[in-house]
Structure formats: C-alpha cells, structure tokens
Amino acid sequence: MFEHWQRIGSHLIRFRIDGEEAERMVELTIGDHWLSIEHGLEPDYEVAVAGGFGAPYEGVDPVRFEPSADGATVTVRTDYRIESSADGRRTSIRFHDYFGLRTALLNWYSRVLEQHGWGVIIHSSCVVHDDMAYLFAGLSGAGKTTIAGMSRPRPLLADETSIVEIARDGGVLVHDSPFRNDFREHTAAGPYPLRGIYLIKQSLDIRSRQISRSEALLNLLNKIVHWQKDPLETQRLIQRCKTLVERVPAYELYFQKNDLFWEAIS
Amino acid sequence: MTYRRHQAVEVLEIDGETILLNQETLAVTKLNETGGRIWELLSENRTLEQVAERICGEFDGAEAHRIREDVALFLDQMIEIGLIHRAG
C-alpha cells in the first residue's frame, strides 16, 4: 500500500494506493507531484485506489448510481466503481485501466466540487499571462491542446480540463489541474484570477468577439465535466455556471494554428 | 383555448434575457425579449388573443395581425418543446 498526498484545487487529498501498478496508473492520470505532509495533518478527502475491476469501456454502458442504505454513494461503469461515504470524505475507487481510472477520478472530483458548490470543471485549456488566467473552452477536437502548446512558454494550468473555483469573495480563480493530457508540467504557483473565457474555433483569420452572458452560459453548459445524478444537482450546476458568466467576460475566439491569437486577446 | 406554462421550469434572467431550464428533461432554452415577456404573461393562463393584445400594447409600431401570427408561432414552438401546454 502506497500513501501519497496531493492538493487538487484547494482540497488536500490523501491517496492510499494498492500496489505498484495502481500507483503507476495514478501517476499517469494525475501526475506525481506528491506533497510532503507533516505527521498528524488530516486530509479534506481520502481516496483509496485499487485496480482489478471490470472490463474496458465500450462506450455503451451508462454510469449507474446505486442507492445505499447507509447514505453512501456508489457509482458504477463497466471500467470503474466509486464508493463514497455519506459525507463524501472517504472514497474507494476500483478501476480497470487508465481510461477507467481517469474518468473515475474526474467523476469523483466533480462530485467533491458539487457537494460544496466550490466550482466547476471545464473541458478547456488554461494559460497564465501577466498573472491572469485565460481559459480556452471547446469540445474534443476544437483545439484546446493546440492553444496550450502554442501559448508556451507561458505557464499552463490545464491542457484539456480546467479546475475553476467560484470564490465566495466574488472572484473566480483557476487552479493548476492535475488532469493533463499532453502537457504534464505542474504549475506550482496560483491559483490565478480568471480574466476571460474564450470559446475557441479554428479559422483562417484571427479575431475575438465578446458574447452576451446568456450566449456564454448556453455555450458553456456542454463543456462542463458533469455526470448527471439528479435534477437538483444539475440545477445547482447551472446556477454556478450563471455566476461564472456574470463574473467573467466570455468571447468567441477564432484562431489560426500560430500564437498570433494572443494579440487578439491581450 | 388558454395556454399555461409547464410547471417544472427554472427561469434564469441574465442581462434582461430569459433562459428556461426544463427540470425534467434538463433542456435549456433561451428566449428573446418578446419571448420572455410572453412567458411572463403566462404566469396565469391566457388565450392567444389576450397575449397578443398585451404584446401589441407594449411594442409600438407593429401590426396587430403580424403580432398575433408571431405569438401563435411562438406558442406552437413552445408547446412542441414541452414548455407551454394547452390548458383547455
């Protein structure tokens, strides 16, 4: 059994990982930027991880939420199983492969954010420029990773999945995301205030256009990482998205595959 | 015949625009200013004529028969997506 600590968003997590192979998969999924923790410190959340579950996901079997008498939440898909205590502080994840573990961790963390209305996870890359965060949202293939790559050497907070805190003081902050794909370098500083949300579209020209808040809300909803469990949860999520677009301006960004789009932004 | 709103709908107002969230299907629908006003008017059951008359009085310069056609079209579309029902 390996014990590792990591901070995700503002949450301190203790991972207890069963076996070397599972440890390797966890590090592939969320990196190995483990924290050194003083003895006696209590985590916000504890996650036990073990392999040996299920079969590869074929894309047809939906996520199932199974009720439990003691208030625990059980979430199952072909390639992973998540069981969380009623207060959500203790979770056990079993997985089949990398894809299963990655999805399970995202599912679990989206639920952590849901529980306290802390924020949202957005399918997007996020880049730091002049100490502000710029978020580039789009569905698969829109160019999130391309934007991240072209923005270097600016620090990256995310290359495909951003962790956005809707802060109680009225601000919006972006934290370094451990859920990386191509660019795995960790940005230790931050979180950074979110300066703008850019809905990206590859194009032959470069321009940006500010959009209305309602347009921004409608465009963002299908880019939120969320597994629908019950309608009330989804309503709360939409309220958080509304708060987000009320606090941060949103734009459509048409970009070519070069870094000139920064001139249209900043 | 009167029309009524679907009950399980959450209404979000952003910058004067109305966004409706159907709590059963989780479909999200954005209304323009006039659509938002018609939704508001249907807080109580009304007929097409009653709605059209109110809209006509509030939006200067439009022809009454055009407004009635537009309101009828809007109501049909809203019925189709389940946000408004015929109340009988």
Task: Walk me through the structure.
- The complex is a heterodimer of chains A (266) and B (88).
- By secondary structure, chain A is α+β, with helices and mostly antiparallel strands.
- Chain A has two domains: 2-115, no CATH class; 119-265, Phosphoenolpyruvate Carboxykinase, domain 3 (Alpha-Beta Complex), CATH 3.90.228.20.
- Chain A is built from six helices and 15 strands.
- Chain A has helices at 20-30, 98-116, 144-150, 213-221, 231-247, 261-265, and strands at 2-8, 11-17, 45-50, 64-66, 73-77, 80-84, 90-95, 119-129, 132-137, 156-158, 161-166, 172-175, 192-202, 207-211, 250-255.
- In chain A, the strands form two sheets. In chain A, strands 1-2-3-7-6-5-4 form a seven-stranded mixed sheet, with helices on one face. In chain A, strands 8-9-13-12-11 form a five-stranded mixed beta barrel, surrounded by four helices.
- In chain A, helix 4 packs across helix 5.
- Chain A is globular.
- The mean pLDDT of chain A is 93.
- Chain B is an alpha+beta fold and 88 residues long.
- Chain B has one domain (2-83): Arc Repressor Mutant, subunit A (Orthogonal Bundle), CATH 1.10.10.
- Chain B has three helices and six strands; from the N terminus they run E-E-E-E-H-E-H-H-E.
- In chain B, the strands form two sheets. In chain B, strands 5-1-6 form a three-stranded antiparallel sheet.
- In chain B, a hairpin with a 5-residue loop joins strand 3 (17-22) and strand 4.
- The N and C termini of chain B lie close together (5 Å).
- The mean pLDDT of chain B is 92.
- Chains A and B meet through helix 4 and helix 5 of A and strand 2 and strand 3 of B.
